[in-house]
Amino acid sequence: MNIAGLAFRSLARNPFRTILTMLGIVIGTAAVILLVSLGMGARHLVLDSINNLGPNLLIVIPGSVTDSGAQVGGGTDTTLTLDDARAIREGCPSVLEDSAALRTAGQVLSGAANWSTVILGTESTYLAVRNWELSQGSFFTEKDVRAMSRVAILGRKVARRLFGFADPVGKWVQINHSPFQVIGILSPKGQSPMGMDQDDMVVIPITTLQTQIMGVTYVGVILANAVSTDGIETAKQEISRLLRIRHHIPPDGRPDFSVNPMSDITRTANRLSLILTVLLAAIASISLLVGGIGIMNIMLVSVRERTREIGIRMAIGARPGDIVTQFLVESAVLSLLGGLTGILLGAGGIFLFRDLVGWPAPFPIGFMTATLLFSGGIGVVFGLYPAVMASRLDPMVALRYE
């Protein structure tokens, strides 16, 4: 207790220098806490966005195309058709439901209001596959798809842009100069994992989009729901086998499609988010090491300034171990106080991001505790060399030091 008291009194003699010495630890600790929390929040957003699509979802996309010897990325070919989606629905027992989808950009008008948005063509099963609901009205039926009806479901943002707070159900809009009757409004969904605003689109029957707007026969993607989480791999194999047969691809041939379970995408996103969080923490931890170097530098200066004091203590019976303990306690107190202040600043930053920005930044209590202990350890490690130097001073030489 006496040694601890001496350490605190020594630090209190030069409060300004003590605060400046702590600054490196304060900044490093606050940066580590804030960046880790933001990384965890980003991970939460990404995983929520992916899970929002459905945990049992499989995404079938066409393969890549080769243009002038250069292979373009997956999803650029036009090998999937509406018949493929219907064949999957009928011929894959492990698939609960599926829906083909195709999208393009378009201009939607209602009176004097107009809005440029995404036009998404789907089948009547789309909402069930996506685990999505309507906030108003109804969705189109299989009969509408086969009849290529001009009916539309508006996303929440499109409805607000065109009709304000009025009820748009039953009213008419123009999509690329063709009239469509609004029969429903989608419930809010937010951003997709690819960054698309899912509330900023209009959904129409896929056959209407193919024949009356785009003039194509292919589909962009097929979304399929497995009957259960355990049946995802089986569903993937059944879809791959069926499409190989339909597209006349031999067993050893390169498929013109790919089947991607959302569970694989979730694992990849989770791993990448974790790596990013660890990387951010490692970068911020460099500030802690810099702060430790600052502590060692100040402690070396302190040893030189207090050489005579050290000689007096040794002369009246202090042992080398007492000197080492005193200086280690001083450096540990510096780093622990800096770490505690940094944690408080980091927590304040988390509050700001949560309340002002709306970012889901959690409070990593366990990580905060570990960071505080780590900052204290840095103080001990970087204070060890000055402490040992102080304990090895010759008492007679130290007493004559001016």
Summarize the entry for a quick read.
By secondary structure, this protein is an alpha+beta fold. It has 13 helices and twelve strands.
Number of helices: 13
Our estimate of the beta-strand percent is 15-25%
Mean pLDDT: 82
Distance between the termini: 30 Å
The helix/strand class is alpha+beta
Helix content: 55-70%
Membrane topology: Multi-pass membrane protein
Subcellular location: Cell membrane
Domain ABC3 transporter permease C-terminal: 282-395
Keywords: Cell membrane, Membrane, Transmembrane, Transmembrane helix
Architecture blueprint of SSEs:
Blueprint: H1 2-13, H2 15-51, E1 57-62, E2 66-67, E3 70-71, H3 82-91, E4 95-110, E5 113-122, H4 126-130, E6 134-137, H5 142-147, E7 151-154, H6 156-163, E8 172-175, E9 178-186, E10 201-205, H7 206-214, E11 221-226, H8 232-246, E12 257-261, H9 262-305, H10 307-315, H11 320-357, H12 365-391, H13 395-399
Parallel strand pairs: 5-10, 7-9
Antiparallel strand pairs: 1-11, 1-12, 2-3, 4-5, 4-8, 4-11, 6-9, 7-10, 8-9
Helix pairs in contact: 1-11, 2-9, 2-11, 2-12, 3-8, 9-11, 9-12, 11-12
Could you walk me through the main structural features you see in this protein, from its secondary elements to its overall organization?
InterPro entries: ABC3_permease_C, MacB_PCD, Macrolide_Exporter_MacB. It is a multi-pass membrane protein. It comes from Leptospirillum ferriphilum YSK. Its main location: membrane. This protein has a six-stranded mixed β-barrel. Strands 2-3 form a two-stranded antiparallel sheet. It is an alpha+beta fold. The chain has helices spanning about 1-15, 15-50, 80-90, 125-130, 140-145, 155-165, 205-215, 230-245, 260-305, 305-315, 320-355, 365-390, 395-400; strands at about 55-60, 65, 70, 95-110, 115-120, 135, 150-155, 170-175, 180-185, 200-205, 220-225, 255-260. The protein has two domains: about 1-50 and about 270-400, no CATH class; about 80-255, no CATH class. The protein is built from 13 helices and twelve strands.
